[in-house]
Amino acid sequence: MGISTTVAARGGGVAQTGSARRGTAPGWVLLAAALVLLACVASLAFGARPLSWATLVEAWTDFDPADGDHAVIASRVPRTVIGLLVGAALGLAGAAMQGVARNPLADPGLLGVNAGAALAVVAAMFVLGQSSLTSLVWFAVLGAGIAAVVVYAVASLGREGATPVKLALAGAALSAGLASLTNGVLVTSQETLDAFRFWQIGSVAGRSWGDVAPVVPLLAVGAVVTLGTGRALNGLALGDDLARGLGQKVALSRAVVALGVVLLCGAATAVAGPIAFVGLVVPHVGRALVGGDYRWVLPLSGLLGAALLVGADVAGRLVLPPSEVQAGVMTAVLGAPVFLWLVRRSRGVAL
Q: Which residues span the membrane (predicted)?
């Protein structure tokens, strides 16, 4: 291990392939923020009902509740906000998961987080008859948290502790088991199946401000916790032994990252359902642009995740008018080719 790498780790960074990436990282973050703004404008302007740009500007400068076009734009605002929040949460959680597991194929489902949230939501619907988002979000976070704790406890068994490989294996096994239990509950209750199958697709359509309020505090706390782990993830990227040698508490670092991921994924899954590919693809794009320093990868992944999900939602409205393709389907359609391209450029996305 070279001296420069060790010094970079002590300073909270990871040695980059060149100074160009470090110097351009703020520019990429600003460009991603501009992309988010563009996606928001498109989300308000495009849909089953075509609106002119003049109408969009007028709705913001001189809103008239009696105007049908203005009412349509107003109804798209909470949908856009939820798309931003969920996309940012999944992108941020995906980057953190890939960093803590040192696995480029990891996503928020690696620790069984999404499967635990889904099972908890189904159980709340089936056993307790819950249907409101205010109550379901807490069940989703609880299920995600329990699943993460179980995976970490199983992976910690043995002398080596919770290594990345053991975390991945335990997470995959638990996810399969929880998915089987979820399906078992669904086949016994048609009512629960009807309520769950629309949520399972993954969508931000039909959401209101009442759906935003319950998840904002959890997403805010999760984002703050996860963004604060950039230096810790940089240390973990060097390997557990070297991280410990530099004075880092590896188990505590992983626990803090897991806490942030649980809050982000639990709240995002509760409000929008399990949406795939955002947490998997976005971090690869971020690392390809700014290198391996998680102090930049994390915020960039959050911004790119928000832009991807809102953009996918807009594309879903336009592809088969006047009907809509749900955002969870469109993220897979848009994300799969990008991910295949990134896999071919494995040097650019390696951890």
A: 28-48, 80-97, 109-129, 135-155, 167-187, 255-282, 294-319, 325-343
- Asked if 266 and 256 count as a contact pair (C-beta separation under 8 A), the reply is no
* Helix ranges (DSSP H) in the chain: 3-10, 19-45, 53-61, 68-101, 113-127, 133-156, 164-186, 190-201, 209-212, 216-227, 230-236, 240-245, 250-272, 278-290, 294-319, 327-344, 346-349
DSSP class per residue in 320-332: STTS---HHHHHH
What is the maximal distance between C-alpha atoms in the chain?
68
Q: What angle do CA 214, 312, 109 make, to 5 degrees?
A: 60
Say how far apart CA 273 and CA 211 lie, in whole Å: 13
Average pLDDT over residues 282-298: 91
At residue 57, what is the residue type?
V
Q: What is the pTM of this model?
A: 0.84
What letter does residue 47 receive in the DSSP assignment? Answer: S
125-148 tens-digit pLDDT: 888 877 676 777 888 888 888 988
CA gap 271, 108 in Å, rounded: 16
Residue ranges and CATH numbers for the domains of the chain are 3-349 (1.10.3470.10)
Say what the pLDDT of residue 272 is: 85
Which amino acid is residue 121, in one-letter code? Answer: V
pLDDT at position 1 over 60: no
Is pLDDT of 172 > 80?
yes
Helices 190-201 and 164-186 pack at an angle, to 10 degrees, of: 140
